[in-house]
Design a protein that fits this description.
522 residues; 39% helix; 21 strands
């Protein structure tokens, strides 16, 4: 029966053929080029793929020109760019690059506490709520139901973009189910943070947490409520009075606030849609959809360093709950990873360095590590592999976007945090206990640095040898291929590695037969 199943399975036949070709190529190659064999022995995702690709090319050279089947077009799907660390990894830059090829760009969680800056054609654009895909003139931008929206900030951002020549008309849609952030939410956010004293969380004071609290308490107000003014007014008054009762000394100009929302209601209503229906309709039409994640996995309310986290789920689950789509519609999941670690605000940071001196100062100054939203100096440290693997496990990244590799240029040695030890025992994951995480001993692996300027490099092969070794080591330890490499601060300073050429697809087919223990994607 087993042999019959093998005979009847085209996928199995293709897999066996791919594996056989790889073995045959290896035999032919061993007779022709011993140096190539040594070069192909790199036990990493990139090394193995490159090795198999060379073998396929060698077979073609020996046997003559063979007819190569075209790579089938990728099925429609939703691709996602997520932060794999503590935020500020450079997600917006990748989204900006990718969004030029997408029909729809969406935000699904968080609020104006997220932020990044993009420089295009010498013009600096700052984003907080708006998907940066708005710079693609043909893209539709969606702010999903999982986002909490401070309408004054949203309109100010919209007006700023319009003043810079970005046409936003009929291209931006707000979910009717998205909850609203009011000024008194922001005031409460500040009061709560101040009351914590030395135990402050490090909130941006944008009212995000209190707005989500209203949502969970089921007394929140949603964007779609503005379409029925009497209902909106009733809900707003009840919510404002609840906060006045709950927080002594809080001041809310209820009548003034209502007058403001009345004045903007018509403008907001023209942008309000059932974005669940809109998104799924676009998917059904075969449109390419890109989700721009905000914040990052280690700030996730469930998976992050609680309570030093944001108030939403900026991990893969938020795409489903914050946009209203099926998991079967997801395709590429791209984890954005800085070549070192940073975080803003309080909380444990196992590989942290002192930013006032030495290597920490180098990372902070060369990397210009200041928060776009907060203006606060970011804490800096070495790349944390246990943290990255934890993020990989949660999100299932198909590939990585490794950013700011150029910042490491000039360091004689580079360290990678590779393992956590707590009370003489190695940990297999990120501990939930903050006291335990604060006391972990990090084991490091030291790699040689490089001094060559990499900002003009356009291919992986052009990078200095030690830089390539560093990237391949990250791949090896994380178990996920690096698809983009950030080599400079400008908009297009990135190297893209493509895995979907015909030869690479053939090699990938063979690899998948035994690549069981590590996540894989191309």
């Amino acid at each position: 029966m087993f042999k019959s199943a093998l005979r009847s399975s085209p996928a199995t036949t293709a897999l066996m053929a791919g594996a056989a070709a790889a073995v045959t190529g290896s035999t032919l190659l061993s007779k022709k080029d011993p140096e190539m064999i040594a070069e192909c022995s790199d036990n990493t995702v990139v090394g193995m793929l490159q090795g198999l690709t060379r073998k396929v090319a060698n077979i073609e050279a020996v046997l003559g020109n063979l007819e190569t089947k075209p790579v089938p077009p990728r099925k429609p799907g939703i691709d996602i760019v997520l932060g794999a660390q503590w935020g500020d990894e450079g997600k917006g830059k990748l989204v900006d690059m990718l969004s030029q090829e997408y029909d729809v760009c969406a935000r699904v969680a968080g609020g104006s506490n997220a932020g990044h800056t993009i420089v295009a054609d010498g013009v600096k654009y700052k984003f907080h709520l708006m998907p940066s895909g708005i710079l693609n003139r043909d893209a539709t931008c969606i702010i999903g139901n999982g986002v909490v929206v401070h309408l004054p900030s949203f309109l100010a951002e919209l007006d700023a973009l319009e003043s810079q020549g970005v046409d936003c008309k009929d291209r931006v849609f707000l979910s009717d189910r998205a909850h609203l952030v009011f000024d008194f939410h922001q005031a409460v956010d500040g009061v709560l943070e101040l009351s914590l004293g030395r135990n402050k969380i490090g909130t941006t004071k944008k009212g995000i947490g209190p707005a989500y609290a209203s949502k969970i308490s089921r007394n929140g107000v949603r964007v779609g409520d503005l379409k029925n003014w009497d209902y909106f007014e009733e809900r707003f008054r009840a919510l404002a009075e609840h906060h006045l009762r709950s927080f002594e000394g809080l001041e809310v100009d209820i009548e003034g606030e209502l007058a403001f929302y009345k004045s903007i209601s018509e403008r907001i209503n023209t942008m309000t849609r059932d974005t669940i229906d809109l998104t799924n309709q676009k998917y059904g039409e075969g449109k390419k959809i890109l989700v721009e994640g905000a914040n990052a996995t280690m700030l996730d309310i469930d998976f992050g360093t609680y309570p030093f986290v944001t108030s939403s789920n900026p991990s893969i689950g938020s795409v489903l709950t914050g946009l209203g789509v099926s998991p079967r519609k997801l395709r590429g999941i791209y984890g954005t990873v800085k070549a070192y670690c940073t975080r803003v605000g309080e909380g444990p940071f196992p590989t942290e360095l002192d930013i006032e001196e030495g290597i920490g100062h180098h990372l902070a100054t060369v990397g210009h590590e200041v928060g776009t939203t907060t203006g606060r100096a970011r804490r800096c440290g070495w790349l944390d592999i246990p943290q990255l693997k934890y993020s990989v496990a949660i999100n299932g990244f198909t590939s990585l976007n490794l950013t700011k590799v150029d910042v490491l240029t000039g360091l004689s040695e580079i360290q990678l945090g590779t393992r956590y030890k707590y009370k003489e025992e190695y940990l297999t994951t990120m501990p939930a206990s903050l006291s335990e995480l604060q006391e972990v001993e990090v084991e490091f692996e030291t790699l040689p640095g490089w001094t060559e300027d990499i900002t003009k490099c356009t291919t992986f092969e052009e990078l200095p040898v030690n830089c390539r070794k560093y990237i391949l080591k990250i791949e090896e330890l994380a178990g996920v291929p690096v698809r983009w490499i950030g080599v400079g601060p400008n908009r297009l300073d990135a190297i893209g590695i493509t895995w979907d050429t015909p030869a690479m697809v053939g090699a990938t087919t063979a690899l998948k037969s035994f690549w069981i223990t590590k996540p894989f994607g191309y």
